[in-house]
């Protein structure tokens, strides 16, 4: 059973006297058969809770600094038309009571809490986004991660790993950006893809007829492949139906020993595409194992990169300037000197601008 949470805020040019405002508001609640309990605020305005039928709860607050807030909570199956009428009546009454004192009225869509299907994710810098997700189409747990594929009316099916949105069927822009944004020619090239379990990179590179693509996806992500080949076919096509094809092979293994083996063998690639993880939000690289992993993968990847080859990877949100700067510092500490460029791309389902890197040997 989910809860709907409505908010109605009135920002005022001057504080108001609760004694002259509250009685008129209470009449609206009484019409809805709600009863109030007044709480002591130690001089910080007026506060009352009101309880009505079907478990409705209202928190009415007249703040001492010139703000009136109304929070309405009800169960999801409650009569939405009645709730809208209540909020409309409160808004109308306050406009009369406060007259010309109102600077701004803000009424937000209801926040649905505790629903079976979660629709809310924070951006990397902490802003809350609501998605139009209506169902879970796939969910599995591996030894290290929870895997969900959710359906969105706007973005299609969305792959979510451990609560983080990874890829939606709408997100071709992500795949194109991590491949070089159409500036590279993959024909007859040797390509190494690290991660990429949604199959999007594999499907796009294959179109350019490379010599061979080796995609290395860690074994606990085999369930990612299983889910995506059924529910993300707009992204992967039929590429995940088989672990081998005319110009590709998928190794379901840990990429670290594979990379170390390639280094020992002296094997090189024209392109290395790292789709394993975003740059960590934490800015403590010496204390964060994710940073250690990132540096290890980066160093090994540069070692297997052809002298004229290129390494592509995602960064993170353009707003995470400190973490991105720290990543760029790491590029100066590799065993082989490198140069880099970066590009900012709008990835539809991320709902924020995302940074991608191109790295090459000096």
Automatic annotation (TrEMBL):
<comment type="pathway">
    <text>Amine and polyamine biosynthesis; spermine biosynthesis; spermine from spermidine: step 1/1.</text>
</comment>
<protein>
    <recommendedName>
        <fullName>Spermine synthase</fullName>
        <ecNumber>2.5.1.22</ecNumber>
    </recommendedName>
</protein>
<dbReference type="InterPro" id="IPR040900">
    <property type="entry name" value="SpmSyn_N"/>
</dbReference>
<keyword id="KW-0620">Polyamine biosynthesis</keyword>
<comment type="subunit">
    <text>Homodimer. Dimerization is mediated through the N-terminal domain and seems to be required for activity as deletion of the N-terminal domain causes complete loss of activity.</text>
</comment>
<dbReference type="InterPro" id="IPR030374">
    <property type="entry name" value="PABS"/>
</dbReference>
<dbReference type="InterPro" id="IPR029063">
    <property type="entry name" value="SAM-dependent_MTases_sf"/>
</dbReference>
<dbReference type="InterPro" id="IPR037163">
    <property type="entry name" value="Spermidine_synt_N_sf"/>
</dbReference>
<dbReference type="GO" id="GO:0006597">
    <property type="term" value="P:spermine biosynthetic process"/>
</dbReference>
<dbReference type="InterPro" id="IPR035246">
    <property type="entry name" value="Spermidine_synt_N"/>
</dbReference>
<dbReference type="InterPro" id="IPR015576">
    <property type="entry name" value="Spermine_synthase_animal"/>
</dbReference>
<feature type="domain" description="PABS">
    <location>
        <begin position="119"/>
        <end position="361"/>
    </location>
</feature>
<keyword id="KW-0007">Acetylation</keyword>
<dbReference type="Pfam" id="PF01564">
    <property type="entry name" value="Spermine_synth"/>
</dbReference>
<keyword id="KW-0597">Phosphoprotein</keyword>
<dbReference type="Pfam" id="PF17950">
    <property type="entry name" value="SpmSyn_N"/>
</dbReference>
<feature type="active site" description="Proton acceptor">
    <location>
        <position position="275"/>
    </location>
</feature>
<dbReference type="Pfam" id="PF17284">
    <property type="entry name" value="Spermine_synt_N"/>
</dbReference>
<comment type="similarity">
    <text>Belongs to the spermidine/spermine synthase family.</text>
</comment>
<dbReference type="GO" id="GO:0016768">
    <property type="term" value="F:spermine synthase activity"/>
</dbReference>
<keyword id="KW-0808">Transferase</keyword>
<dbReference type="InterPro" id="IPR030373">
    <property type="entry name" value="PABS_CS"/>
</dbReference>
